[in-house]
Write a structure and sequence with these properties.
3 helices, disordered N terminus, alpha+beta, elongated, 5-stranded mixed β-sheet, 2 domains
Length: 198
């Protein structure tokens, strides 16, 4: 069984690398990534969120054919983010199945409009870092707009400094036109047309 490489990456708070050259070509290589509280705090800081707790990423790296490999694991973590409306803390439990395929003959798509492959394939590196995959997967799984219970958007008001702000009704000048016509005695549907009796 291959062991993680004893290496560190100053740019990543969590790294559990495996050298591809030492991975078994016949059986899966298991991994378990369980960062301590200090490392989880560094992951939270990297992702720009308030906290990461209970993070764990367990799975295996399997050989595919003669030269390719597949990483599959289960990511679990509890994250705390500020509410996108009130900034109060919002706690979310994340549980994701993560898959990455590393292909020795991987070819980057060519052309002006390059589409990202949907099968999570990428070039086979010299080192497969389960810790880096865990951080990347967690970043992709974070709620984009976390919202605390009961938090709702209120009417927006806009205006330059020193001027009275414009509310939603002010920027919709025709929204009250039908009501105004009714109050002036007219029918917005043409029923009370004063020319109708002529």
């Amino acid at each position: 069984m291959s062991e993680p490489v004893n290496a560190s990456n100053a740019d990543l708070p969590l790294t559990v690398p495996f050298r591809v050259a030492t991975l078994s070509a016949h059986r899966p290589t298991s991994f378990s990534v369980e960062p301590d509280a200090e490392t989880q705090a560094l992951v939270a800081a990297l992702l720009g969120i308030s906290a990461v707790r209970g993070m764990a990423f367990r799975g295996e790296i399997r050989p595919l054919g003669k030269r390719d490999f597949e990483l599959e694991g289960r990511l679990a973590a509890t994250v705390v983010q500020p509410c996108s409306i009130t900034l109060t803390p919002v706690t979310t439990r994340i549980e994701e199945t993560v898959t990455r395929r590393y292909l020795a003959d991987y070819a980057m798509p060519e052309g002006e409009e390059v589409e990202v492959p949907e099968d999570d394939s990428e070039p086979l590196p010299e080192v497969i870092d389960a810790g880096a995959v865990a951080v990347e997967a967690l970043a992709l799984a974070l709620p984009l707009y976390p919202r605390a219970a009961g938090a709702e958007l209120t009417e927006a008001a806009f205006g330059p400094p020193g001027a009275a702000p414009l509310g939603d009704a002010d920027v919709k000048p025709f929204a009250g036109l039908a009501d105004l016509r009714r109050r002036m005695g007219g029918d917005p549907h043409g029923g009370d047309d004063p020319q109708g009796d002529a």
